What we know:
alpha/beta, Rossmann fold, 7 strands, binds nicotinamide-adenine-dinucleotide
Amino acid sequence: xxxxxxxxxxxxxxxxxxxxxxxxxxxxxxxxxxxxxxxxxxxxxxxxxxxxxxxxxxxxxxxxxxxxxxxxxxxxxxxxxxxxxxxxxxxxxxxxxxxxxxxxxxxxxxxxxxxxxxxxxxxxxxxxxxxxxxxxxxxxxxxxxxxxxxxxxxxxxxxxxxxxxxxxxxxxxxxxxxxxxxxxxxxxxxxxxxxxxxxxxxxxxxxxxxxxxxxxxxxxxxxxxxxxxxxxxxxxxxxxxxx
Length: 243
Ligand code: NAD
């Protein structure tokens, strides 16, 4: 029986690359999207054709409890179990410090942090029943180091994911391993609006002298979900090329 992975926000960027890496390993993949139905369906068809696996495409807002419950129920109905959860969905609102509002804070925390909690809460019910599971949360180096107050709410939401990861690993012990990956800059749609000059300055600070490709983060996530990472629990791996 194929293993099953549910990846939030997987129609593009790191989530899409992660879906491809898991499909290559024979996992059945649940593709969650919020707005881009076409990309989610295209990815689904590609994975089925290329890797001969089964997929399920589910629209759900990870910050909406009812929608999260429905997504988990649909997954269990189709695949009966969830072996791996990747909490990848995230947003970053680009604004100067002075313009940042309470609404921006709420939205960012709701999607990035509370969304991670909600999906973990409902997926863990099935994993605990099966006494087995891996949860990988996508944090950020912004949650570990402090870079720019212009992303103050995003940074707080990603720092909270590190803490959430530790708490969940205790809560779900000894059955579910919960870990996080903290990427630095990655070439994804999230960064496509960044000014070229800023990209140049940031690239100069990275030891590897380039942004990561989404596949490079996806491979770290795949490792954390693998049996080789069985004794890694309640921690995070930084993948920022050195910075
Ligand atoms: P992206 O914008 O390409 O992808 C984010 C995905 O999350 C999109 O598919 C989006 O639709 C989805 N999403 C947003 N809100 C959602 C919601 N409420 N419910 C369900 N899905 C939702 O960006 P990405 O760079 O691929 O980001 C993936 C993750 O990696 C995010 O958590 C991001 O914070 C994190 N990250 C990215 C970078 C980077 O440089 N790109 C660095 C560190 C961490």
